[in-house]
Amino acid sequence: MGEMSSFQLGVIGALFLSVASSVSIVICNKALMSNLGFPFATTLTSWHLMVTFCTLHAAHRFNLFENKSIDLKTVVLFGILNGVSIGLLNLSLGFNSIGFYQMTKLAIIPFTVLLETIFLNKQFSQKIKLSLFLLLVGVGIASVTDLQLNFLGTVLSLLAIITTCVGQILTNTIQKKLNVSSTQLLYQSAPFQAAILFVSGPFVDKLLTKQNVFAYKYSPIVLAFIILSCVIAVSVNFSTFLVIGKTSPVTYQVLGHLKTCLVLAFGYTLLHDPFTPRNIIGILVAVFGMGLYSYFCNLDNKKKNSGADSGSQMKDKDETLLLLAQDKENQDANKANKDSLV
C-alpha cells in the first residue's frame, strides 16, 4: 500500500511539473518569438536539448543519479527519431495553416491508441475512448479555426504524427523493458537529439522564416529570454520522459491538450489575446473529457490492483493448502512407520 501511495504521488508530481514547465516555456517562447522577433524555433530546440544534456551531465558528475548503459544502437535510433519528429512538427506548422496544425496534434492521440492496440495488444475500454473523443472535440472547438490543405503540408503532418507517436511509445517501452529511469534515458539520448537538430535547425528555420539564425542581431533582452527558455526546457524535457515513463503516451498527449487549454486561458488573461464564447465552450468540453479520462483510468487501475491482490491472495492460499497437505502426508508417513515398528 505504501509503495502504491508513493507511486501515485510520483505520478501527480510528474504531471504537475510537466504542466507548469510546459505552460511557462510556451509563454516565454511566445514573448521571444512574437514580441522580440526571434523566429528560429528548431534551432532554439537544439539549444534546449544541449543545455538539458549539460545539466544532466553535471548532475551525474555530482552523483545525483546513477547512469545505466543502454545499447548504443537503441539510443542513437531513439534520439534521431525524436529529433526528426520535432523538426517535422515545426515544418508542419510552417507549411500548414494553424487550424490544420492543431488537427495534426489532435490526430496523435487516436493514432497512438491504434498503434498500441495493434502492436502492443493494449486494450482501451469504450469509456476511455469516449472520454478521449470528448477531449479531442473540445480542444478542436477551442483551437481549430481555418483548415487549409496542401499536398506538401499534409505529407509533413502525416510523417510528424507517425514519428511523434512511435517516439513516445518507445519512450515508455524502453524505460520499462530495459528498466531504466527517465533521467537515464534522457541523459543518453539528448546528445543525439540535439545533434540532429543542431545540424538541421538552421536550414529548417531558414526554409520557414527566410532568415539566417547566424545573421540575427542578438540584443541583451533576447539573450536573456533565450537563456530563460533553455533553463525551463531542462524541466520540460525531464518531465516529458518522466510522465511518459510513469503513465503512458496517451496520458501524456491528454496532458498536452490540458496545456493547450491553459495556454489559451493564460493568453486571454495575461496577454489579452482574442477570446470568444467558442473558446470557452471548447475548453469546458475538453476539461470535462480530461476529467472523465482521469476517472476511468483510475477505475481501471483499481481493478487491476484488486485483481493482482486477489491473485496473490489465491497464490498464498494455494501455497498454504499445499503445505498443509504435505504436513498431513508427513504425519501419515510417521504414523505408518510407528505401526510397522510395533
How are the SSEs ordered, and which strands pair?
Layout: H1 2-35, H2 41-61, H3 72-95, H4 98-119, H5 126-143, H6 151-177, H7 182-209, H8 220-246, H9 249-269, H10 277-341
Describe the fold and architecture.
- The protein is mainly alpha-helical and 342 residues long.
- It has a domain at 8-133 and 146-247.
- The chain contains ten helices and no strands.
- The chain has helices spanning 2-35, 41-61, 72-95, 98-119, 126-143, 151-177, 182-209, 220-246, 249-269, 277-341.
- Mean pLDDT is 83; it is low at 336-342.
Q: Tags for this entry?
A:
342 residues, mainly alpha, 10 helices, 0% strand
Number of helices: 10
- Helical fraction: over 70%
Structural class: mainly alpha
Strand content: under 5%
Residue-averaged pLDDT, rounded?
Answer: 83
Number of strands: 0
Q: What is the alpha-carbon Rg in Å?
A: 25 Å
Tell me the distance between the termini. 55 Å
The low-pLDDT segments are: 336-342
Spell out the helices and strands N to C. Answer: HHHHHHHHHH
Mass-distribution shape: globular
Reported for the largest beta sheet, the result is: none
Write a brief structural summary.
By secondary structure, the protein is an all-alpha fold. The protein is 84% helix and 0% strand.
